[in-house]
Amino acid sequence: MLSKAGTGKAQLLDVMDADKKHAVLREGFLVKRGHIVHNWKAHWFVLMPDKLLYYKYEGGRRDSCQRGKIPLKDCVLTCPFLECENRPLVFKLHTANGVDHFLEACSREERDEWAADITAAGDKLQTSDGGKMANQEEPASPRLRNIDLSKVLDSMYDVHSGIDMSSHVEQGSTYSNCFSGSAVVDWLVFMQLAGTRGDAVTLATALLEENFLRTVGIRSVEALRTAGLTQQFMDDSTALYSFSDSLKKRGSVKAETSLSAVELSGQVIKRGYLLKQGHRRKNWKVRLFVLRSEPSFLHYYDPTKDELSPAGGFSLRSCLVSSLDDNGVPSGVKGNIQGNLFKIITQSDTHYFIQAPTHQEKMAWIDAIREQT
User: Fold this and answer.
1) Helix (H, G, I), strand (E, B) or coil at 16
2) I need a surface site. Which of 79, 89, 124, 278 has the fewest CB within 10 A?
3) CB-CB contact of 281 with 291 (8 Å)
4) CATH classification of 266-372, choosing from 3.30.930.10, 3.40.50.2000, 3.30.365.10, 2.30.29.30?
5) What is the pLDDT of residues 20-68, one digit of tens each?
């Protein structure tokens, strides 16, 4: 028979086990594709030890009722998932009952962190069953010295399954028919031509050294000139590359300059999902905010659309940014808000009311914006 002390200890362990099952491992905004209608909607996701929950934001406040649940046991994670056109930050979860969930993060770093945390949670679930969570990024990469670079180039150049080519902006110039360094690394990992990002960088550098690829724009040219042989190719969304000039059928790189290109030419300082109040209807919507410097601009994008151009933006020159008190509803703010508010007043006296998901994120955005004003 158990003593009272032993019974108390057992009860305490049961409570601790229950707490572990309800522990929040990670939470934040992700954009999810619908199952029936393939539209994209932003939801608040909460990662638990055995499942991924998601909630809707209504009127600037999180709905208390969950809108869906993704079980993690025996789930297959694909990261990066590159089959969604114009959405390179998507990862896919394939559940044990055969349902696919497509989720998009606000940045490559956020995407990889979500994928790593979900994989770790799945691995812990499988440990008790003597297995391991399936992850399509895990197979060992081929031995790089045995790879035929010409075959890699053929796959990369393929019109249907090769790397996507698009327009990119750097220092006031728009370059067409090129791709970023991070896009190449993502593609090589996705195609299982490299098992890790490090292997992918090594493989991409070899393509560059053999003149299969060439640099585009100042950032990648400078990297080629100053970096060592093993660091020439940059796993970076701002370093641009294209196929060599001898490959013509997929288009040539052209540089064009416009006012909007100048706005978008600055270095990206910070990216993230924030809630923004509309100017006319005063409703709250999740927007992807991108902060740039030199020139200093803050742009916001509608994450539910595939468009690459911003929905709006403004120069940070002479802007005022301030934190708003969460006690009560400040003047000019509508809706049942969650909190963590701040306000930006532009040089033209336009007022932007914005909510961050946490107090820490709010202060980080305020500090980052102030540095650019």
Assistant:
1) helix
2) 278
3) no
4) 2.30.29.30
5) 556 889 999 999 998 777 889 999 999 999 999 999 887 677 777 778 8
